């Protein structure tokens, strides 16, 4: 596609605009071209176009083509007698090569790799498997590099956000993007052009014409592209202030609720999404893909509540899913459980005594059997049906070694629990399931507590 469009260009001004438009067209995208490799040129025929992206300091004049040699990076020793020798020092290729186990891979230049970028095991023979994540949670994030059209390499725009700062601002460093390219063709597409260097304020072209062929090597200033919009922004949700219980705007910079604490309320329907992604243990939920990611959560009878600071820590993709379930009004009642109140507001060391029965059991299991419980996929939600209840009982018995036979077998509740476990219970409604589940959790907590903590 690039080669076809080049055939319609008749002058250097059009060529310059063609290069700039490559990036104007992609300004809303998450990724922009870092390498474009199009066409095929031989001694006899054909044409090709190669483009690479570089970071160049804004104070630098574009006074030569290819400010930085292809794919190189590392420390350079400038000639202090020549100002232009600093140009290469102040220029970085966006993409460089790395040799890994006999393969040559594309990588983001190590000189511009920030703390937001994490590498994972190599899973392809094209580029380093690196991801960009600037969220609070330890998630994989966005791929730094992706491939398009077999040969083209695109880079995630946010990798530049620490470098592309306005020249008049007080934020440093102040770099810009420059596209460097080479175009070779056997068809001189320009009506009349001489073999020489053409210098403009924002670009430079080195043109060579011979035997009907044409080669153009150039550097074109792309400038400061807007990076991807930061999702750490005010979201369209209702937050209830702890101080006066009034609705206020979301504060995306609140991560600890030390000042101006707030609650974010959700309808219970949100539990379907939470169950898919998280384990629940007492007042904490754990990311199933990375157990190190954990957040406070309060599951009440008719709602699910996050502290605003905990909500802000959640992955943006997860918040995008759950925000539609948000609700709230001034003077909303019943927005914090006794356990959460004791733990977070009253600083009560015995807060676990005020937890709901399933939360108390979760607190004990987390203290004694947490790794085994996670390996068994145990989560302390109130079951939606008998099958979920049965599954919970079997898994709890497996990790604790405490079976229903330890309880009074003549008690009706125990009989029903055994029927559920043994798949012999015909039916229970959701209220009956909730009541029996909490009774089971309460009694099991007492047994385990007596056995392991006395």
List the helices and strands and how they pair.
Elements: H1 2-6, H2 12-24, E1 31-41, E2 46-57, H3 86-89, E3 91-93, E4 95-100, E5 103-108, E6 117-119, E7 130-132, E8 142-143, E9 145-148, E10 152-156, E11 175-185, E12 197-199, E13 203-210, E14 213-223, E15 239-241, E16 247-248, E17 262-267, H4 271-277, E18 278-281, E19 284-287, E20 294-296, E21 298-299, E22 303-307, H5 308-313, H6 316-322, E23 326-327, H7 338-345, H8 357-375, H9 386-400, H10 412-421, H11 430-452
Antiparallel strand pairs: 1-2, 1-10, 2-3, 2-11, 4-5, 6-7, 7-8, 9-10, 11-14, 12-13, 13-14, 15-16, 15-17, 17-22, 17-23, 18-19, 19-20, 21-22
Helix pairs in contact: 8-9, 8-11
Short descriptors:
454 residues, 23 strands, elongated, nine-stranded antiparallel sheet, six-stranded antiparallel sheet, alpha+beta, 3 domains
Description:
By secondary structure, this protein is α+β, with helices and mostly antiparallel strands. The protein folds into three domains: 2-223, no CATH class; 231-353, no CATH class; 356-454, no CATH class. It is 26% helix and 26% strand. It has helices spanning 2-6, 12-24, 86-89, 271-277, 308-313, 316-322, 338-345, 357-375, 386-400, 412-421, 430-452; strands at 31-41, 46-57, 91-93, 95-100, 103-108, 117-119, 130-132, 142-143, 145-148, 152-156, 175-185, 197-199, 203-210, 213-223, 239-241, 247-248, 262-267, 278-281, 284-287, 294-296, 298-299, 303-307, 326-327. Strands 1, 2, 3, 9, 10, 11, 12, 13 and 14 form a nine-stranded antiparallel sheet that branches. Helix 8 crosses helix 9 and helix 8 (357-375) packs across helix 11. The relative contact order is 0.09.
